Amino acid sequence: MKSKITLAFEKCKEEKRPALITYIVAGDNNEKNSLKILNAISKHADICELGIGHNCPVADGYQIQNSSYRALRNGITLKATFNIAKKFKKNSPNKPLILMGYYNLIYQMGEDSFLKNCKTSGVDGLIVVDLPFPENKKFAKKCKRKSINFIQLLSPTTSKLRMKKIITQSHDMSYYISMVSTTGGKLKVSPKKILQNYDKIKKLNRKKNLVIGFGITNKTISSLKRADGLVVGSQLCKAITDSIRKKQNPVKKLNKLVYSLKRKIA
What is the pLDDT of residues 64-94, one digit of tens each? Predict the structure, then answer.
């Protein structure tokens, strides 16, 4: 049986456009609003990523760190994150949901217990930022046995030999980090150069779905729409920050923003 992630990419390819993948942090700006935001933006997003709040997010820039801080300050827990995921999937069972976080939380809960919670919550995929290849091989196999996609990461510094190994081991989606940076930074590399690097990876196996993340905003997204998918996260987290500061409704603000992003790649 094909995964929901694969089906989402197939639908986008039929429509001759990239998949729009959104990212927000679970519990930002609170647990209730987080679920409302997820439900709203999922109407326009093809795949949703839900970040697990962490106090030492090594890959995350200022905007996502702000979101994590607010979520943690408001009492978000891993149990509550799974609760958000479960409620979301009850409302949108066919929308792919990916959890993104760091290995320490998985280690503390125990890999088997964590994956059991993922399964019962309807999680379709996992990105574990600080569990790189080949150290992730054992855990990735556990994920596959549970029909949960483990999403491998590649970057501009990944060697060709390493790329080949990662793509061979990858599941239904891999994630190309557009530049050497944390999330939320302005693109330090031209879209042309990003796509050149992207094409080198795609040539290794054109059947594998490969998305681009880091530095993707409403200003850059249309120049990269040749990719299989594009991830927007920091801009959404910034929109939540702005809405709180201006005392606006973050649900309405993000719904409007994601709708706008979708139109730019349609």
Answer: 888 999 999 999 999 999 999 999 999 999 9
Q: How confident is the model at residue 58 (pLDDT cuts 50, 70, 90)?
A: confident
Query: What does the alpha-carbon distance between residue 247 and residue 182 come to, in Å, rounded to a whole number?
Result: 28
- Cβ distance 17 to 63 under 8 Å? no
What's the CATH number where 11 sits? 3.20.20.70
Question: Taking the C-alpha atoms of 4, 10, 11 and 13 in order, what is their torsion angle to the nearest 10 degrees?
Answer: 150
CA separation for the pair 123, 215 (Å, rounded) = 25
Residues with Cβ < 8 Å from 189, sequence gap 6 or more?
Answer: 156, 178, 179
Domain residues for the domain of 169 are: 4-265
Verify whether residue 28 is a known catalytic residue.
no
* pLDDT (0 to 100) of residue 187: 67
Is residue 49 annotated as a catalytic residue, yes or no?
yes
The pLDDT score that the predictor gives to residue 65 is 87
Number of structural domains in the chain: 1
Distance CA 25, CA 32 (A): 12
Q: Active site residue: 28, 31, 46, 60, which one?
A: 60
Among residues 28, 31, 46, 49, the one annotated as catalytic is 49
CA distances from 119 to 85, 97, 145, 219 (A): 10, 11, 11, 36
